[in-house]
Amino acid sequence: MALKGLDIFKLSPKKNCKECGSPTCMAFCMKVAQGAADISACPYFSEDAKAQLSEATAPPMKSIKIGTGAEEMVLGGETVMERHEKTFVNKTRYADSLCNCMDEATIEAKLAEVPKVDYDRIGERMYAELIYVNYSAEGSYDYVELVKKAAALGRTLVLGCTDVEVAKAALAVCKDSKPVLNGATPANYADMSAVATEAGVVLGVSGADMNEIYDTVKALEGLGNKNLVIDTTGATVKETFANTVQLRKAAIKDGDRTCGYPSIVNLVKVAKDDLHLQAALAAVFTIKYGSIVVMQEITYSEALPLYGLRQNIFTDPQKPMRVEPGIYALNGADENSICLTTVDFALTYFLVSGELERSGVPVNLIISDAGGLSVLTAWAAGKLSSSSIEKFWKEADIEGKIKNRKLIIPGKVAVLKGEIEAKLPGWEVIIAPREAVELVKFLKDMQANGEA
Amino acid sequence: MTLFDVVFAGNDAVFGMTEKAIDDAIAANGADKAVALPDTAYSLPCYYAVTGTKVGNLGEMKAALGVVKTLMTREKRLNDVFMSGVATALCAEFIETLKYMDGAKPYEAPCYGHLADAVIRELGVPLVTGDIPGVAVILGAAPTAQEGVDLVKSYQAQGILVTLVGGIIDQCEELGYKTGANVRVIPLGKDVTSVIHVVSVAIRAALIFGNIQPGDAAGLMKYTMERVPAFVNAFAPLNEVIVACGAGAIALGFPVITNDQPTVDAVNGRVPKSLIVQEDISKFNATSLEARDIKIKITNIDIPVAFASAFEGEIIRRGDMQVEFDGSRVDCFELVQTKEASEIEDHKIEVIGPDIDTFEVGSKHSIGYVVEVAGKSMQTDFESVFERKFHSYLNCVEGLMHTGQRDMIRIRISKDTFNAGFRAKHIGEVLYAKVKNEFAAVVDKCQVKVYTDAEKCTELRHNLAIPVFDKRDERLTSMTDESVDVYYSCIMCQAFSPSHVCVVTPERLGLCGAVSWLDAKATNELDPQGPCQIITKEKVIDERIGEYEDVNEAVRKFSQGALEDVSLYSIIEKPMTSCGCFECICGIEPLSNGVCIANREYAGMTPIGMTFSELASMTGGGVQTPGFMGHGKHFIASKKFMKAEGGVARIVWMPKELKETVAERLNETAKELYGIENFTDMIGDETVAEDPETLLAFLEEKGHPALTMEPMM
Amino acid sequence: MPFTAKSGKFNASIKTVTIGTGDKAITLGGENALPLQSFDAPFANAPKVGIEITDFGMEHEPECIQKYYEGCSTIGEIAKKAASFEGVDFLSFRLEGGDPNGANKSTDELIAMVKEVAEAVDLPLVICGSKNAERDAELLGKAAEAVQGKNALILAAKEENYKTVGAAAGLAYNQVVGAESSVDINLAKQLNVLLSQLGVKPESVVMNVGTAAAGYGYEYVASTMQRVKSAALSQNDAQLQMPIITPVASETWSTKEATQAEADTPEWGDQERRGIDMEVETAAADLACGSDAVILKHPVSVATVSKLIKELV
Hints:
The structure holds 3 protein chains of 3 kinds.
Chain A: H1 5-11, H2 25-34, H3 47-57, E1 63-66, E2 73-76, E3 93-99, H4 104-113, E4 118-121, E5 124-127, E6 130-134, H5 143-151, E7 156-160, H6 164-174, E8 180-184, H7 189-199, E9 202-205, H8 210-222, E10 228-231, H9 237-252, E11 263-266, H10 267-270, H11 275-287, E12 292-295, H12 300-313, E13 326-330, E14 338-342, H13 346-359, E15 363-367, H14 375-380, H15 386-395, H16 398-401, E16 406-409, H17 417-423, E17 428-431, H18 439-448
Parallel strand pairs in A: 3-6, 3-12, 6-7, 7-8, 8-9, 9-10, 10-11, 11-12, 14-15, 14-16, 16-17
Antiparallel strand pairs in A: 1-2, 4-5, 13-15
Chain B: H1 3-29, H2 45-51, H3 58-71, H4 78-99, H5 117-129, E1 135-139, H6 145-157, E2 161-165, H7 167-174, E3 185-189, H8 196-209, H9 217-227, E4 230-234, H10 240-251, E5 256-258, H11 261-267, E6 275-277, H12 284-292, E7 321-326, E8 332-338, E9 349-352, E10 363-365, E11 367-374, H13 383-395, E12 400-403, E13 410-414, H14 415-419, H15 424-438, E14 445-451, H16 454-478, E15 486-490, E16 502-504, H17 517-526, E17 534-536, E18 540-542, E19 547-548, H18 549-558, E20 584-589, E21 594-599, H19 612-619, E22 628-631, E23 651-653, H20 656-674, H21 692-702
Chain C: E1 17-19, E2 26-28, E3 48-54, H1 63-66, H2 75-84, E4 90-94, H3 107-120, E5 125-128, H4 133-146, E6 153-157, H5 162-172, E7 176-180, H6 185-198, E8 205-208, H7 218-234, E9 245-247, H8 249-252, H9 256-259, H10 271-289, E10 293-296, H11 299-312
Organism (chain A): Jingyaoa shaoxingensis
Protein name (chain A): Acetyl-CoA decarbonylase/synthase complex subunit gamma
Pfam families (chain A): CdhD, FeS
């Protein structure tokens, strides 16, 4: 059980000196309790108090940083098993993969393919953030050369290499971009750890089963290396799933700090060449505890649903996803097309825009800022009102951009009709059905009657 | 003759008849001769359901008759009457079955006789769903054919399934009234024994839809009593056999309504509510529905203009207005009143005063409407809950605008709507239909009085409405957590705050500020499976912080185990959780030994060092955060506000706007609890301080009570 | 020191519900561990995969589905073909044309098709409604009557029509009743309570607690399912212990990802592959969150998800 802010406050200096950056000790302690601030930011906590608190406030799973600059990302740091308990904080990262066992043509083709998937979805850049570069002793392509080429993509690398010397050579050409060295095994961990530590990179640990992995992590911790990720990939899909879930459970539920590291799940190993199965598994491991998921290919086909899923799963359950306010011209709408407005709650937007698209009727969908709430909630909270609409109309210069003066409003806020008409003179307000699914017929009927 | 004598005599007569019929049949065909009712898997359904034994031939039927005989006890207790009634019904089934021997077709159009299982399955679904709200069994001939047909028609119009036995069938034929299963008027047969075919419907419904095991007579009777909304209308004169059959009906839970006063008097009816005399045939319908507690869904509001939520936001401008009722200028009011069922004639709409068409275009008038309701589960506490819905009901009328509530209402009716024929009584129609439908769980009967007579409005506003409003307010303010037996949970917010549970008490409404104890209570009564559930508070753990074993249990259950225990009155020890909808958050300000409260609208900094949204992010999500709590604005002035920590005297800071909103009530509370006058003057706000040090200086200057209270931590 | 995993086995378990009759009957539920976590306790019944066809036959299907049904002209033939694909555990027939806002086909026409489908295959049947609650009240009641003796799953009773659908399917004609609610654990529970009050046996109820395609508000689906499973297992909440079935195809095949032609967005690549990935990823997420059965459309998706289940459970 994590400490409550008040318990921390009791041990605080109660000086309100602001040196930690928070205006009061109370505010600081609440942040520490939430994990949003580190106790060491306060110069006045007694050593005793700090020791007492650091154990209690340390997160059950370490947050591990990889990559640099814009590509820097955090893995792990999760505190719960399911997202409704508390936000999943650090999203699953997907790795496209290369291997020195591939022939040159394949490698070149892949290198050309990887950057193609790069798009924006509700304000988030979607692309393969990681490249898994696998080393096989039988591989004929020069591994270091391959690493160089992969690094040139500008993505963070995960080096899958258990050969200490090869790893060292590879790190020599890419360590500055803070890759992961996924190479520690029960056989080589001490040497591999030295290589990783020297290069200043995160070390991935693997083993034949959870016992081996557990012992190796313990041993590495004994050597003072806690900058780790755990490769939970087993011999089969089932084993991999069991390892990944059990690791998370041991860390979160049982507070076993040895298990408190992010995971790597390598789907190429357990579902080679079955791309659809890998896509399905990637979805499973997005929900169930994969920090890095390695896939054979990340094309738009896998990416579109997968990144959407990830965006859904890694949201604050209390903060709904929002879309940008603005005019969305659908089905080839232009300034003469009818307007329809709704809120900026992403789910509402997707539902409504989906139905509008299905109707085939050109519509200007106008999304105003409603605090990311659903229609009724926004209305009840005063965030969707005739005033909010009037305000947005001015801000976005709707009347300058659109000539049509018919506005369809959600059926659930029919009550706004009169007020909107009063505030937007010249506009005819039309009440839509209460449910989005009824929009298709509604719009088609309007079109048939020459109203839209 | 007593009821016993009549029923026993009727029972004996039918038994004798049955015995003879079976004996004759055996004599003619032998005991092995097969007998069955067609198209049923439950032959013979009634006997099988009651005893668990099937009857397949005459010999078995004879044996079954022996079993029936054992039901015919002759002690003079009510149970003997009922069992003799059941025995009579079973005899009737045997007699009717004999008619079907050798594949005979004893009934011809329009009579149906025995109904097949398939028909029951088909009728059973709408019966279970309430789409067929009841089953009427009309027995005998009405005084005149017209009265009989009118009665049938009245049930039919309500969607009630009508079955006919005896003379009424001829009366329908006489007037050419259409009957048949497709129009849900089913003539069974002309012999009184054919009534068994509708009993058989009820019983097979219990077997098929109620999953009652054959032989479980008690379960069977419970099912028919609770789930089969049937009743009997028996026309005078009643004979012994009919009375005996009626006893059977009553045993199954079906009341009998008759116009035969003399017979009922004679038998000294000792089954009140189940044997009812109604001499006026035109009231058979209403009496029957009331007796069987059948509520008819209103699917259509009888007004000349459209009714839809799309009209809710309509604004009617002066120029488009036919007439206006304005409570700010003249006397107007709207009111719900609970009455006795006998005082109400359902769906009666009265207009008292001139109608709208006598008013000049654009003129202003008084209006008052009283919606009178009655119901077994109706409580006066619901009156205000209904009343608050009037606004949205009336606004859904095309071309009608309604604002305000109580005696501060304003209504405008547009010219178009007036021209479409909308008049004062239609206001009554709308209110009647909506109240009846939406509150069907508690409203059995409803009538509306619409007053447009100015003097009457003035009188009623002052002598009727205002005293009621005052009394309600009085009740609300006087209601305390101690004065009620139960609290309510509210989990409306769990969709986005999965583990949060509000415990709503009279003095602590939901933290969204929108759900009062009365609202929660009404929600619970109207939707027993809904978001508000009863929480008992019998097992107190700690009076001081308001912790109860049963409250904890409920919270555990409704949070799916996420929350272990809560206190009602402390923000430090096991404080109640918050969902995210809270109007306000209060949090400890340690320096001044008190709490600061921030409301949602306040965007600035608080002396705690956190803004409202920062506070919200740590307090929301159904997690207990000692020292911090979300709550409604109304709660600030409550005597239960952080009672465990010393109450409202702990409040050291609030945004100015919020302070002004709650000042009057808060000052009153502080005066009552601590004898402090103008307490809010001692409380800081953003114009005084946004940091703890300046606030403390201010509090010291004012001598704020929190400074000298026990340390909070 | 070996790694010791604590058992995730619960004392409570998901109720079992059988759909269909004879050798091909399937049983959903029975597990006493969290979704797919058969390493905690063996699953009595692995999740099942169904294939969906509709009353429109191939009329509304994308080319990439149509090609699998070449030569089929009647709905019976289509049903037979659908049943023949690898990995299909049950057949789902959706009465899409019943929607009064859509084709609004007559009840007689649709019920005749239900009968034809029921006669064509011996797989367990799921009959899905038109999405219009009012129409479904009538349609699903008749469908339940039409497939008497098949022990079919009637999908679904909703808050608006549960009485009619529940009484017809669950009481009058002894089918399995689907209980559909919209991504809210409390609504799901309420509907189960209402159905049981109506007299429908809990062992004849399968829930659809809501569905969405990956990326389309899926967080609500995920959390609802996870919370339902958690309440069912750790709280032993009997009113939430019914197995969950999730229609996937009807959601995913209307998303942009699956419907956009390659010509319109060439960079997205092959449309069929996109459609399949959308379908399998959504289905996999559903299974990971707690579905005991999923309904898919593309034969490759069915085979893939069936393989996924075999690999995991």
